[in-house]
Specification:
With 341 residues, the protein is an alpha/beta fold. The chain contains eleven helices and nine strands. The structure holds thiamine diphosphate.
Amino acid sequence: MTLTLASIEAGYGLSRERLLRIEYHLRLTRSLEERIVSLFRQGKVIGGIYRSLGQEGESVACAAALDFSRGDIVSPLIRNMGSLLVAGALPVEILRQYLARGNSLTRGRELNIHIKDFKRGFMGPVSPLGAMIPVMAGVTMAGRIQGKSMVGMVHIGDGGASTGAFAEGLNFATVQRLPLVIVIENNGYAYSTPTVKQTLATRLADRALGVGATGETVDGNDVLATYAAAKRAVDRARAGEGVTLLEVVTFRMKGHAEHDNQSYVPKEVIEEWKQKDPVDRYERVLLEAGVATPDDLAAIQARVKGELDAAVDEAERSPLPIAEDAARGVYHGDGFWDEPR
Ligand SMILES: Cc1ncc(C[n+]2csc(CCOP(=O)(O)OP(=O)(O)O)c2C)c(N)n1
């Protein structure tokens, strides 16, 4: 069937404006990461870079299904910069984190996307994988006790889904019928360990069956299909129908971090997934459906470039942390975190 704007609007409930906003966030995510790699190669980044190249589609599409005006909260992992940008984190805030600046959201104490802002609706990860599942169960339970209609969304990798914290959190959130969407990113590898060495299950979403949650698997590089699946899960959660375990099938197109040359992945596999690039695929859909012209797409890329030029400049001009501040803000009540930066 040929897609048109009208058929997309009818099938997915997405207006032209929202479809172009998704495109903007896809390009912003990809380009911001490219800028961060460039800063890394100049020796300016503190810590590692965990690219989401090839996975931007699922981060952006899943977060786009949330309604941040209703208090929804997303908990991204290191490869979900796209979710943060959709939630309203600014590129300059993310850049200041990577550059460990004194006026970053964590004042230079935490790196990459380990940031939170409950008001805007994002809560960055802690490093122990799986731990954010029970934490987000708690966040959504608190929301319910407070009478809010908020939904939580938490991301986990195929490797992270092998942890005890994941299993406990999934079971607890499910039996409590909490409004939580757990997104498993099946991106082929956990570091150098292929998914087939993590589990004999062929569908990671089947883990929902054992606890009585709803499970769904979707092509994570198909932005519209992923949006639709995430929206179904969010709607179910908001309607009081509990947890969905949404498996997004995608591929990590880079090594675990910049130091990893991904030599353990066969070249043909990388080539095969290149053809399924989520951003290219989404742009083809926009063009074929007449939602955007090549000029529209070029204008979005120009806007992204202009915004990132300014953001990189501002982040590089931001001050480094002050040594004396290291002992402040450790205990509640000294006003450190309320001081303007
Ligand atoms: C509980 C725990 N074990 C090990 C690690 C170290 N570690 C960090 S990332 C990573 C690989 C994660 O793979 P996966 O969950 O599949 O996510 P991906 O990197 O593929 O996005 C590991 C083992 C950790 N952070 N937490």
